[in-house]
Amino acid sequence: MLETATATAPGKVNLFLETAAPRPDGYHELTTVFQATALQESVTVTRAEEMRITVSGLDADCVPTDSSNLVWKVAENVLPSTPVHLHIVKAIPTAGGMAGGSADAAAALVACNALREHPLGIDELDTIAARLGSDINFVLHGGTALGSGRGEILTPVPFTGILWWVFATQGQGLSTPAVFTEHDRAGAWGHPHSVQPLVHALKAGASASDLAPLLFNRLQDAALSLRPELARTLFAGEDAGALRGIVSGSGPTCAFLCADEQQASAVARALETSGTCRHTVTTTTTAPGAVDKLQTSYRKDNRG
Ligand code: C5P
């Protein structure tokens, strides 16, 4: 019987996010393109006397350590009646639109399954992931994918390039439901943008500068309406040379696509001194999905 298991899972950036009117269950039908970041979370699960969560790394003191944390719910689903200690090592900024909490959940799913020596296949892990949140399925699989439904229905998009990103974080988070509510208040789902030009460009292996004009986030206006100061952040990053700046998911983190590592360093330096963000994180896409320490990959045919 295994005593402990560790797994990692990436964060995400939405290159494209279009919404439809809310469904009867309150969720919004999405058309989105996800990419997984090289920045990843790590979760170690160890058999214990009682359930416990500890957290280290970036923004560790902002992370709940009680049963409200998704990793607790994951353990209850995968290891019923088995108390465990879950230790999360954070590298992804919290409450920011980069799916840090979803990455913790995906890593916990894979680690808990590894602790039981893999009784669950990918379809069962996907079912649990979809029940617990909208972004967990993607970070389980990684790579690049077109997402529909709540974001949990995924079609891999073959893309073999490497893109450089700078993420500018804010001191205060932005609630995802609040951003969707603001978006609905503004009635912003009128004329849908097509995702096809971006998908074709990705499949054709387009460069960062070709992809930049195709980035789109329907939630950006709502995030800016709730946090007008983010406009200054977006301006500061683009002024420093980024190819394009967009709000990441529901924000408030802003994502800046850069031509290469050198440009990303310059953009990060400029943002750090601009006074328009808390700090910056530089990373690349795309990366693999959740992987346990024994290197069992849970990706289907996505490419990292
Ligand atoms: O599924 P998840 O817990 O990540 O979603 C958080 C909240 O974001 C939901 O409660 C809902 O208010 C909003 N949401 C939505 N439509 C989606 C995804 C999330 O309205 N497709």
From TrEMBL:
Catalytic activity: 4-CDP-2-C-methyl-D-erythritol + ATP = 4-CDP-2-C-methyl-D-erythritol 2-phosphate + ADP + H(+)
Enzyme Commission numbers on file: 2.7.1.148
Keyword Signal (UniProt): no
GO molecular function, one term: 4-(cytidine 5'-diphospho)-2-C-methyl-D-erythritol kinase activity
Highest taxon, organism lineage: Bacteria
Active site annotation, chain numbering: K12, D135
Positions of ATP binding: P93, T94, A95, G96, G97, M98, A99, G100, G101, S102, A103
UniProt KW Isomerase keyword: no
Keyword terms of this UniProt record: ATP-binding, Isoprene biosynthesis, Kinase, Nucleotide-binding, Transferase
Gene Ontology terms: biological process: isopentenyl diphosphate biosynthetic process, methylerythritol 4-phosphate pathway; terpenoid biosynthetic process
Annotated GHMP kinase C-terminal domain residues: 209-272
Residue ranges annotated for the GHMP kinase N-terminal domain, each copy included: 69-143
Pathway: Isoprenoid biosynthesis; isopentenyl diphosphate biosynthesis via DXP pathway; isopentenyl diphosphate from 1-deoxy-D-xylulose 5-phosphate: step 3/6
PANTHER family: 4-DIPHOSPHOCYTIDYL-2-C-METHYL-D-ERYTHRITOL KINASE, CHLOROPLASTIC
Protein family per UniProt: Belongs to the GHMP kinase family. IspE subfamily.
HAMAP family: IspE (MF_00061)
Function: Catalyzes the phosphorylation of the position 2 hydroxy group of 4-diphosphocytidyl-2C-methyl-D-erythritol.
Protein name (record): 4-diphosphocytidyl-2-C-methyl-D-erythritol kinase
Originating species: Corynebacterium glucuronolyticum
Gene this chain is encoded by: ispE
